[in-house]
Structure to design on (521 residues):
C-alpha cells in the first residue's frame, strides 16, 4: 500500500481541498453508535462521477482500499465507519445533484449525496403530483445509501431494494456501468449492487408514487401479547388481497415508548417491559396496545372506504382499528391543544400521543422527519452518548414465525439487562423484517460490552434456527455466512469487477480470489 503517492496523485487530479487526512476529520469518520474503532487513512470527497473514476483508478494502482459512503447516516449499523482498518473513506456527500425529474412518468435520478430533506423539498417546490417514499432515518439520510443497504420505508414503494433502476456504477476495474431500465434485453444487474462491494454507485433512478386522490392512515391496537399471531396473519392476508399496499409496521408497546419520549425518571434504574409501557403511555381516552400496527391506505375515496370496511371485518373481535385522514388528525390536534392550554393533564397526554403519531402519518405520505432520531436517545442525555445497534432478522410473514422471533429474543434481552423494543414490518406480503433495538451508553464500557454480547447472542441463537438477518451491522460483518455456491459466485463476481480488491473490503463478507477479510470486531 502506497498511501502518500495515492494522496499526492488525487490532490493533483481532484481539487486539493477534497483530499484530507486531518486527524479531526478521520476521528469523526470513525465515530459510530456501535462503539467500534477503526484506523482510517484519509477522506476523499469526489464531486463528480469522473472524480470517482480517478479515485478508483488511483486506488488500484497504489493498493489503497476505498470505503464508499453516501452521507454516512447508517446509524445503528455502522454510520460512516469502514468494515476494516486502513481504508480511505470515499465520501460521496458532495455529489448531491437531482439530475433528472420526469413529471410524466414519475421518476427522479439522484446522486448519493441527495438527502431525504432535499428530495422532499425539491418535490414541494415544484408542486409535484408525486411523492417520495420516506424512511424514519432522518432528514439528512441519503436516498441512495438506504437503497444500497436494502432498506425500506412506509408507502407502497417502501421496499427500496426493488424500487430503483438504471444504477450508474464505477466498477473496481474502471468501467462505468449503467444497469438500465427494465423490461430490457438481458439480465437485470441492479440487484448485485445492493449489499455488495463490486463498485461505487454514483446515481440511480427512483420511481415516485403518484399523490393519491385520498389517503388515510390506520392504527390497529391489540391489547394482549397473545394477539401477535392473529395480527400478523390478518395483515398478511390483507396485503395478499391487495387491500393494504403499504409497508405495515407492527411494534410492541416498548418500541412506541422509546421512540416517543425520554425514559421516565422513576424507571432510571429499571428495565421497562411492554406492560409497563402500556401503563405509561395509555390514557382514559387513548389506550396503547401491547402490539400496535400502522400503515396507509391510498386511492380513490371509494376504494379507501371499501378497504376500511374490509379491515374492520377482518379484525372484528381481534383488535381495534382506527383511521385518520389529514383533516381528522388536524381536528383532533386542535381539540387536544385547547384542552392542554386549559391545563388538563389528559389534554397534554393526548397531544403528546397525537404529535408522535402525526410524524408516522406524514411519513406514510413521503414527508421525512427527524423525530425518530431526536427521540432515539432514550436513556442518555446527548446524542454523542448514544450507543445503538439494530439486530434485524427476516422472517416468513406468519404469526408462528413472528412469535418465534419474540420468544427467541426476549430471554436474551432480559439476561443481558436491556429493554426489548421491537418493530416487525411486512415489507412484502410474504416477508417480515424484525428490528430489535439495543440501546446503551456509548461511553459506559460495561454497557457497551453487554450490548455487543447481546448482539452476538441474538445472531447465534437466530442462526441456529435458520433465521438470517436482512441487513448487517459492522459487528461480525466479515463472518457472515452464505451457502458455498453463492459465496463462490460472489467471489467470482468480485474478482471480475474489482480485480484489485479495493472497493469496500469486508463489506457483507464478499471477497475475491485474493482472500477473505479479517475479523476486526
Amino acid at each position: 500500500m502506497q498511501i502518500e503517492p495515492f494522496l499526492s496523485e488525487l490532490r493533483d487530479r481532484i481539487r486539493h481541498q477534497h483530499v484530507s487526512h486531518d486527524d479531526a476529520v478521520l476521528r469523526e469518520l470513525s465515530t459510530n453508535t456501535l462503539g467500534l474503532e477503526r484506523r482510517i487513512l484519509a477522506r476523499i470527497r469526489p464531486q463528480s462521477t469522473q472524480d470517482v473514476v480517478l479515485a478508483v483508478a488511483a486506488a488500484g494502482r497504489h493498493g489503497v482500499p476505498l470505503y464508499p459512503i453516501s452521507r454516512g447516516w447508517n446509524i445503528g449499523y455502522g454510520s460512516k465507519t469502514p468494515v476494516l482498518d486502513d481504508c480511505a473513506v470515499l465520501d460521496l456527500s458532495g455529489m448531491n445533484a437531482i439530475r433528472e425529474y420526469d413529471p410524466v412518468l414519475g421518476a427522479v435520478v439522484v446522486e448519493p449525496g441527495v438527502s431525504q430533506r432535499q428530495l422532499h423539498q425539491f418535490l414541494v417546490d415544484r408542486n409535484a403530483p408525486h411523492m417520495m417514499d420516506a424512511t424514519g432515518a432522518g432528514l439528512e439520510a441519503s436516498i441512495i445509501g438506504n437503497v444500497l443497504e436494502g432498506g425500506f420505508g412506509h408507502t407502497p414503494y417502501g421496499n427500496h431494494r426493488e424500487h430503483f433502476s438504471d444504477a450508474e456504477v464505477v466498477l473496481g476495474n474502471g468501467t462505468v456501468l449503467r444497469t438500465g431500465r427494465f423490461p430490457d434485453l438481458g439480465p437485470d444487474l441492479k440487484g448485485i449492487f445492493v449489499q455488495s462491494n463490486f463498485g461505487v454507485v454514483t446515481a440511480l433512478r427512483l420511481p415516485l408514487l403518484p399523490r393519491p386522490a385520498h389517503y388515510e392512515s390506520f392504527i390497529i391496537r391489540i391489547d394482549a401479547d397473545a394477539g401477535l399471531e392473529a395480527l400478523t396473519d390478518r395483515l398478511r392476508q390483507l396485503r395478499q388481497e391487495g387491500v393494504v399496499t403499504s409497508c405495515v409496521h407492527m411494534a410492541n408497546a416498548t418500541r412506541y415508548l422509546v421512540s416517543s419520549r425520554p425514559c421516565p425518571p422513576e424507571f432510571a434504574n429499571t428495565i421497562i417491559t411492554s406492560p409497563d409501557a402500556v401503563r405509561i403511555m395509555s390514557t382514559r381516552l387513548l389506550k396503547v396496545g401491547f402490539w400496535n400496527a400502522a400503515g396507509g391506505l391510498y386511492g380513490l375515496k371509494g376504494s379507501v372506504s371499501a378497504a376500511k370496511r374490509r379491515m374492520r371485518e377482518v379484525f372484528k373481535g381481534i383488535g381495534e382499528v382506527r383511521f385518520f385522514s389529514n383533516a381528522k388528525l388536524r381536528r383532533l390536534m386542535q381539540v387536544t391543544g385547547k384542552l392542554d392550554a386549559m391545563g388538563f393533564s389528559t389534554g397534554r397526554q393526548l397531544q403528546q400521543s397525537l404529535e408522535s403519531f402525526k410524524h408516522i402519518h406524514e411519513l406514510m405520505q413521503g414527508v421525512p422527519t427527524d423525530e425518530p432520531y431526536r427521540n432515539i436517545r432514550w436513556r442518555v442525555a446527548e446524542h454523542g452518548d448514544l450507543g445503538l445497534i439494530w439486530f434485524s432478522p427476516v422472517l416468513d410473514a406468519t404469526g408462528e414465525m413472528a412469535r418465534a422471533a419474540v420468544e427467541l429474543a426476549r430471554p436474551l434481552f432480559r439476561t443481558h439487562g436491556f429493554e426489548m423494543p421491537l418493530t416487525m414490518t411486512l415489507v412484502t406480503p410474504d416477508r417480515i423484517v424484525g428490528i430489535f433495538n439495543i440501546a446503551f451508553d456509548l461511553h459506559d464500557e460495561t454497557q457497551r460490552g453487554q450490548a455487543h454480547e447481546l448482539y452476538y447472542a441474538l445472531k447465534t441463537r437466530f442462526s441456529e434456527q435458520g433465521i438470517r438477518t436482512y441487513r448487517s451491522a459492522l459487528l461480525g460483518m466479515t463472518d457472515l455466512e452464505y451457502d458455498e455456491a453463492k459465496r463462490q459466485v460472489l467471489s467470482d463476481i468480485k474478482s471480475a469487477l474489482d480485480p484489485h480488491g479495493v472497493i469496500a473490503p469486508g463489506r457483507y463478507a464478499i471477497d475475491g480470489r485474493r482472500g477473505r477479510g479479517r475479523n476486526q470486531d
